[in-house]
């Protein structure tokens, strides 16, 4: 369990995690509350974070105009293809003010096929989720609590990252 602070080691063991934390991923000493962020879905309906209760989610706050966000999106799509299901979902939450049409165009351009589309045109989710930059990716447990986050891009389909995330799902 390298890279973990002592209080976090006890917590990680209590949830059955046996892993090395991927570089840049900061786990909290204890799970933190998460704001009930609202978004619009691809079909125009509205939803919020409560919709994911009972499922581990990886919320990626991003925008089509953010170059690092654009570059990591294929790896998030691949992660969803590998781990997505009843117990886990990658929630790519776009903060594009132009709305779902620009996000759909981007998904089509790069061939995203596994991610659902979630858009917050108000950008209020950035403040509610305490993001300090884009992309910011937040790991949330099935009880709706933040376990940790990574600020900046990552290779989400890297075997070390997949193993790390799988330990929270199982």
Biggest sheet architecture: 8 strands, mixed
Number of strands: 8
Determine the CATH superfamily.
Glutaredoxin
Q: Outline, from the CA principal axes?
A: globular
Average pLDDT confidence is: 91
* Order of neighbouring strands in the sheet with most strands: 1-8-7-4-5-6-2-3
What is the share of helical residues?
25-40%
CATH architecture: 3-Layer(aba) Sandwich
Number of domain units: 1
Structural class: alpha+beta
Residue fraction in strands: 25-35%
Alpha-carbon distance between the two ends: 17 Å
Q: Name the poorly predicted regions.
A: 1-11
CATH class: Alpha Beta
Radius of gyration: 15 Å
What is the CATH third-level topology name?
Answer: Glutaredoxin
Per DSSP, the total helix count is 5
Order of helices and strands: HEEEEHEHEHEEH
Pfam families: Redoxin
Subcellular location: Cell envelope
Domain Thioredoxin: 26-170
InterPro entries: Redoxin, Thioredoxin-like_sf, Thioredoxin_CS, Thioredoxin_domain, Thioredoxin_ResA/DsbE_sf
What does this structure look like?
Keywords: Cytochrome c-type biogenesis, Redox-active center, Signal. This is Redoxin. The protein is α+β, with helices and mostly antiparallel strands and 170 residues long. It has helices at residues 6-14, 67-83, 100-110, 124-128, 159-169; strands spanning 25-33, 38-41, 46-48, 56-62, 88-94, 118-119, 136-140, 145-151. Strands 1-8-7-4-5-6-2-3 form an eight-stranded mixed beta sheet. The two termini are 17 Å apart.
């Amino acid at each position: 369990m390298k890279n973990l602070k002592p209080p976090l080691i006890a917590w990680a063991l209590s949830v059955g995690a046996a892993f090395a934390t991927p570089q840049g991923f900061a786990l909290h000493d204890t799970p933190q509350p998460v704001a009930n962020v609202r978004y619009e879905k691809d079909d125009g309906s509205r939803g919020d974070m409560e919709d994911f209760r009972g499922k581990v989610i990886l919320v990626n706050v991003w925008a089509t105009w953010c170059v690092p966000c654009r570059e990591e999106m294929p790896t998030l799509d691949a992660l969803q293809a590998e781990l997505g299901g009843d117990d886990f979902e990658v929630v790519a939450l776009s903060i594009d003010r132009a709305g779902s049409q620009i996000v759909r165009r981007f998904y089509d351009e790069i061939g995203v096929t596994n991610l659902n589309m979630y858009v917050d045109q108000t950008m209020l989710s950035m403040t509610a989720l305490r993001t300090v930059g884009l992309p910011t990716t937040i790991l949330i447990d099935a009880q709706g609590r933040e376990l940790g986050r990574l600020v900046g891009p990552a290779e989400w389909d890297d075997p070390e990252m997949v193993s790390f995330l799988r330990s929270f799902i199982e």
